[in-house]
Write a structure and sequence with these properties.
Strand content: under 5%
Helix content: over 70%
Structural class: mainly alpha
Oligomer: single chain
């Protein structure tokens, strides 16, 4: 009985290795003899299965590494986004402070006499003077411009007459 089972297993392996179907009624069919070629094919199948398992393991490891890298990138992106927002907030605060300081400066210049403000504005560059004049009331500017040096008064007046989208 053990010999018959052994031969049945060997026959089944031989048929599987050669691509044949398993016999449903082994008792009615003659048993095919296993050749060394059948045994070699069976070993090749086992080797191929081992290689497939090794490749699947390698692919799984690479997928895990990719997930780890993706997670790290997502964390870094979140950190960068947070830092970017923080910088935007700081910049807005600085601009607000500068705007407040500028508003205070305009108020100071507006309360000063034209003869006292003119020498200060003469020493500033033209775009700064234009920006200050645009923030002041027109009647105050009209009192200061005649007190400026002639070249400065002409340059500033020309700039005030133009529409400047940057200011």
């Amino acid at each position: 009985m053990k010999i018959k089972i052994f031969f049945l297993i060997l026959a089944a392996l031989g048929l599987l290795a050669s691509g044949g179907a398993v016999l449903h009624a082994l008792d009615k069919q003659p048993v095919k003899a296993i050749t060394p070629e059948d045994v070699a094919n069976a070993f090749n199948i086992k080797e191929r299965e081992a290689a497939v398992v090794a490749k699947e393991t390698e692919i799984s490891k690479r997928e895990q590494m990719q997930e780890q890298v993706k997670k790290e990138l997502d964390e870094k992106l979140a950190k960068l986004t947070s830092l970017q927002q923080e910088l935007k907030d700081q910049l807005a605060a600085i601009k607000g402070a500068q705007s407040q300081e500028f508003t205070n400066l305009v108020k100071i210049y507006s309360t000063m006499s034209a003869s006292k403000v003119a020498p200060l504005l003469d020493s500033m560059d033209d775009p700064a003077v234009v920006k200050i004049f645009r923030a002041m009331k027109t009647d105050q500017v009209a009192k200061i411009i005649p007190k400026l040096k002639q070249e400065k008064a002409v340059a500033v007046s020309q700039s005030l007459g133009m529409i400047d989208t940057q200011l």
